[in-house]
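FYI - complex with nicotinamide-adenine-dinucleotide, inputs then prediction.
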Amino acid sequence: MGRLEGKAALITGAASGIGQATAQLMAKEGATVYLSDIREIEGEKAAQDIASEDGNANFLPLDVTQETAWEKAVEAIMEDTGHLDILVNNAGIPGAGVRIEDMELETWRHCTTICLDGVFLGVKHGIRAMRKGDGGSIINISSIAGKIGIPTSGNYCAAKGGVKLLTKTAALECANKEPRVRINSIHPGFIDTDLLAGAIQHRGPWFREFIEYNVPMAELGTARDIAEGIVYLASDAAKFVTGSELVIDGGYLAR
Ligand SMILES: NC(=O)c1ccc[n+]([C@@H]2O[C@H](COP(=O)([O-])OP(=O)(O)OC[C@H]3O[C@@H](n4cnc5c(N)ncnc54)[C@H](O)[C@@H]3O)[C@@H](O)[C@H]2O)c1
């Protein structure tokens, strides 16, 4: 019996990286998984790969910045299964790589719209859907950048810090209402995905050296390392956990 047997899960930004690894692990743990992304070809393929290994996986196109797209995606899942038990607000893009004094408002908004507004919309529609069933678990992917400042990532840090406190507020609003919805944030450190590869390429090789020198475990994390934390928070093993911050960072924030 898997840890998520019988549960329906929606994961945003699931065409690659942490979202894809989470979908793979959740399917192995018995969940019916709905992968979503703006990259439809890659997302469809990720769902097919899971299905080809006997996982229960489907793809739904979803741009997290569009409220009507959220309504459609949640409605499709409710029609399909009658319940939504897990939502992982994972879709995101990297920071600007530009100092605040040089940052265009458009650059600021591009990141905060996807990384913060997108999570707000997910939490809103996730709670509404979960209340129609037996409640559920929402996991918001923040970052170590939601707990500390990082030069040239002002838009990303502001968005991820916003996700941290949006999570706590939503958790408090839901804590003593039945059916219960638990809401937690995860704070990954430097994880080996396309997003980090892009940030290293944009900033230059010094950034990789900075990471390897400053992460106490002296290596990048894997998408699976984060997926394991997400599955724990999604599972009934975490039934008393809400409003918390799970840091998975190889010791980076412990320094
Ligand atoms: N990789 C890291 O080091 C790291 C560290 C901390 C936090 N995170 C966070 O983890 C999450 C996943 O990132 P990843 O590292 O797996 O990167 P990734 O680039 O592999 O995955 C991000 C996914 O989000 C999708 N996406 C982007 N904009 C979208 C939108 N508007 N609507 C729907 N989907 C959209 C992309 O298409 C992509 O598939 C992000 O929120 C990121 O900020 C990553």
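The helical segments are 17-28, 40-51, 67-81, 105-131, 154-174, 194-203, 206-214, 223-234. The mean pLDDT is 97.
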